[in-house]
Structures are given as C-alpha cells and as structure tokens.
Design brief:
By secondary structure, the protein is α/β, with parallel strands linked by helices. It is 34% helix and 23% strand.
C-alpha cells in the first residue's frame, strides 16, 4: 500500500533523514522509534505529503503522495501533529467535525461518524464544551477524535499518521486509545505512529522502523527482530552497560 524508496532529506549540506526504504502493506501498524532529533516527526510529515523529500519517493497505491492534490490526499491520509493549539472558540463537536471536511456528506453521514468517534473516546460529556477551556489530556482526546473522523469510514482505504498520540493521556485513556487503534487496524486501517513508548508493543502484528543518527535506517521489521540490545545501543548511543537498556529488556522479557 505504501512504498518508500531511497528516501532522503537534506538541509544545505546536512543530512536530516535517510536513506530509507521499506514497504507497508494494508492493515499494518508501523511504529517509528528513535532518539530525540532522529527525524521521526520529519518522516511522518514526509509520509503525510506535507513536505517534499530531497531524494527518493513515497508512494501511496503507486501514486507519489506529494503529487496528490491536497483535498484528494486528505480523503485518504489523516495526520495528527505532535502538538497544536487553537485560539478559536470551537466546541468539541465543531472541532471534531473538521476531520470530516475532506469528505462529501453524500458519501457517508457526517453526523453518524461524529457521534461514533465521540462515543469511542468517551467525549460525550464534553461535546458542547469549548476546546479552549479543556485540560491538556482532554484536548488531546479531541484532537485524536478529529483525525479519527477523517479515516473512520472505510478504514481499509485510509492511512492514519500519528505523532506521539498518547501525549498527555492518563494510563486508562491510553489503554482505551490503543484498543481503538488496534480494532481499526484489524478493520483494515494502515497506521503509522512515532513513539517513545516501545517497551511493550501492543499489537502482535506491529512493525517497527528504528532510526539512528541523522535519520539513518537501523532496522525495519517485527519488534523482536529490530529492538535488539545492539540496535538500541546504536540508535540511542547507549553504553553496553546502560541501566536504561537493562530496564527496557527486563520489562520486555520479564
């Protein structure tokens, strides 16, 4: 469904990312893992078609994502940035409905989708509240609801790209969001996220892309194959006796 071929990004003479090459099939959950500054957010923006690479290509169903008209791309690709703010006094309902803008209401019922998404994230009690008065965790759930509305209908035709989606969420809500995303992947959604929370990968069919220094590709594949002590030392510049590394593997295999 998604093919990344010899992807690179440079700024001046400095390499920011790449070269990266991998293929994602439909209904795959890809987690992009790496140190701060490794290029995770940069890669997600490239995959969403928001920025153009310096070299190589990203194709969605054999079509370059940067060559798609923005409205057409938004019908198939939902993107949630790491953080955002709004100064407009939207209600929760109004904010969530922004995710439906790319879709013609003749294709599917906007109200039904919005109600389903709001219910799935237990936002019913907040739907008439102004988003500017919400807590950080509440607003993050609303942001997730907005982008989920964008890909909710026929998820097997959609790609969802999330940059640190669990930020500001408490443990109970994190479990709720992970369970919801797992179900959407089972329904055919292709999901890509950037995360630091890789100690316990929640999905048995999950795929990991591990980025190293200057966005190099350290590994790509199943978590058990990619997240090895050697690979993590390379990606995170850790010493062999790193306490952090020891805790990671005690947690994953304990």
């Amino acid at each position: 469904m998604i093919r990344v071929e010899a992807l690179t990004l440079t700024r001046g003479e400095r390499q920011i990312l790449g070269p990266l090459s991998f293929v994602l099939e439909q209904a795959c959950w890809l987690s992009v893992v790496g140190a701060n500054g490794a290029g995770k957010s940069t890669l997600l923006r490239l995959m969403a078609g928001l920025d153009a690479p310096s070299g190589g290509d990203i194709k969605l169903r054999d079509q370059p994502v940067t060559g798609m008209a923005p409205l057409n791309r938004a019908q198939y690709v939902g993107y949630l940035a790491q953080s955002s703010a709004t100064s407009f006094p939207f209600t929760v309902e109004e904010y969530v409905s922004l995710g439906l803008v790319p879709h013609d209401e003749k294709t599917f019922n906007h109200r039904n989708v919005m109600d389903a998404v709001i219910e799935s994230l237990t936002l019913g009690a907040l739907r008439k509240r102004k988003v500017i008065g919400l807590s950080g965790g509440e607003f993050q759930r609303v942001r997730l609801a907005r982008v989920l509305a964008q890909v909710w209908f026929e998820p097997d035709q959609r790609v969802l790209i999330l940059d640190e989606p669990l930020t500001s969420l408490d443990l109970k809500i994190q479990d709720q969001v992970i369970g919801l995303l797992e179900q959407l992947v089972k329904d055919g959604l292709t999901l890509i996220d950037a995360t630091h929370q890789f100690v316990s990968m929640p999905v048995h069919d999950q795929t990991v892309l591990l980025l190293g220094e200057r966005g190099s590709q350290v590994g790509f594949g199943r978590p058990s194959e990619v997240l090895t002590p050697s690979a993590l030392r390379t990606a995170f510049s850790l010493e062999s006796d790193s306490p952090t590394l020891q805790r990671v593997f005690a947690t994953r295999h304990g």
